[in-house]
Amino acid sequence: MSSIDVPLTKRGFGVTSRKDNWWVEPLVVFLGYMSFVVYATWAGMAGNNYLYTGGGADYLSPMYSPLLTETAPSWWPAFLPFSAAMLILPFPGGFRFTCYYYRGAYYKAFWADPISCSVGEPRNAYRGEKKFPLVFQNIHRYFLYFAIIFVFILLYDGYRALWFTGADGQKHFGIGVGSLVLILNPILLGMYTFGCHSFRHLIGGIKDVISASPARKAAYDCVSCLNRNHMKWAWISMFFVGFADLYVRMCAMGVWTDWRIL
Amino acid sequence: MAEQATFRIWRGSRGEGKFVNYTTPITSGMVVLDAVHGIQASDANDLAVRWNCKAGKCGSCSAEINGKPRLMCMTRLNTLDLTEPVTVEPMQTFPHVKDLVTDVSWNFAVKKKIQKFTPRAADAADGTWRVKQADVDRPQEFRKCIECFLCQDVCHVLRDHHLHDEFAGPRFFVYAANLEMNPIDSGDRVKAIKEDLGIGYCNITKCCTKVCPEEIKITDNAIIPLKERVVDDFFDPLGGLIKIFR
């Protein structure tokens, strides 16, 4: 509590003089994130249909890439059902959970802290990101390092999706709809990852005199350009990862047909 | 546009009071401050309202219009729904004085806590410095601040949690960023930004950015870069290790 002489007129939860539909944005964010989290959890736990090899294709779901092992490693707790995605998803999941954009969005939509600007909050106590547990949001740059590696791994998956095993057992260049999906996916992830606030800081923001290195200045400007649309890339890339998994899954299940373009 | 509009204005002093409806003639091109002045001239001569430039540059006429922190002089009536009363209230985050006026002096006390501009040695014999435009682009954005304190008003850390003693607020992270990123400044405020200004309380809601009349990207360009500098010094053991061996 502050010593400042403020009339402490505590507004109740949701109380505001705003006349616009302020509740729409947090509701859309809540539903959007929840739908992805529910799908990603289900797809990650499923442990099947993550690889499509029909027609000689080599499509791997991004939620299972890199495919480190298909069976539980010896150290895996026996009580926990195993899926290869469970070794992967904590890294991109952690990157998004600690992302500055996502933090601001889910603090509003899930914690109502605040639910919207100048709208009353449900709780009096507040610790922010200054104290445990949210002080751990400061490890975001460590998740960034992994996220950058994942972008390149998924780019390699996209490249692999361009090669189809023919009747002669040899790999032949080709393009299927799935190839395009798996190539577009890391590009969108790259637009999100390389527009990260931490990356922007590390690439140039850390310096007060940035003009000393033209390469650094150019990189900083480029990252800043992506960063201005960080929210947009966060949403697009998140849903496209889900769509890429769904595409591979549906093809592997025989529900969708992968159209060969070339 | 309707020829008359009703304004629901907070009347009272020291936090005690009530909303009073006033109906006043309006014309094309008017802003909320014009309407408030019209009401003051005709219906409420004792209505207290702080204003000065009427051009969005002095930062005096900050208030909450239909619940949103805004400058009265920059809020055109044709952007508001005039079929129902327009609510005009004082800022909620500062001590109330009278009607639409609040005491914002706390902000000036906070500013005194921040290490002032500390220039490095001059580059030239005449005591001047040489800097490139690319290096002052960032601080120049922050110098647009007019100290209207709308960002302080909307920040829930101050507004709802009243952590005025522990948290400086967005305005002063802009101020600190302006100094920290200045290529001439040699001061190091990172520890103070973490401990005295309480940047960790900011949870990046971007409300400050949304209300800034100068359209300063407060969160993306000031607060988050400062948070990253705090991470450099306090939460990045790997980076610290690299610095030791570099």
Topology:
The complex is a heterodimer of chains A (262) and B (246).
Chain A: H1 24-46, E1 51-52, E2 59-60, H2 90-97, H3 100-109, H4 140-160, E3 163-165, E4 171-173, H5 177-193, H6 197-205, H7 214-227, H8 230-252
Antiparallel strand pairs in A: 1-2, 3-4
Chain B: E1 4-13, E2 16-25, H1 32-42, E3 62-65, E4 68-71, E5 86-89, E6 96-98, E7 101-102, H2 105-112, H3 133-142, H4 150-154, H5 156-159, H6 170-180, H7 190-195, H8 207-211, H9 218-234, H10 237-245
Parallel strand pairs in B: 1-5
Antiparallel strand pairs in B: 1-2, 3-4, 3-5, 6-7
Describe the protein.
The complex is a heterodimer of chains A (262) and B (246). Chain A has 262 residues and is mainly alpha-helical. Chain A has 8 helices and 4 strands, in the order αββαααββαααα. In chain A, strand 3 and strand 4 form a beta hairpin. In chain B, a hairpin with a 2-residue loop joins strand 3 and strand 4 (68-71). A 5-stranded mixed sheet of chain B has the order 2-1-5-3-4. A two-stranded antiparallel sheet of chain B has the order 6-7. The termini of chain B are far apart.
The number of helical segments of chain A is: 8
Overall spatial form of chain A: globular
Share of helix among residues of chain A? Answer: 40-55%
- What gap, in angstroms, lies between the N and C termini of chain B? 66 Å
The total number of structural domains of chain A is 1
> Oligomeric state of the chains?
heterodimer
Total count of strands of chain B = 7
Q: Please report the total strand number of chain A as a whole number.
A: 4
Task: State the strand order across the main sheet of chain B.
Answer: 2-1-5-3-4
- Number of H- or I-type helical stretches of chain B: 10
| Unreliable residue stretches of chain A | none
Report the average pLDDT across residues of chain A: 95
Biggest interface, and residues per chain?
A: A-B, 56 and 62 residues
Q: What is the structural class of chain B?
A: alpha+beta
Average of pLDDT of chain B: 96
- Taking the alpha carbons of the first and last residues of chain A, their distance comes to 67 Å
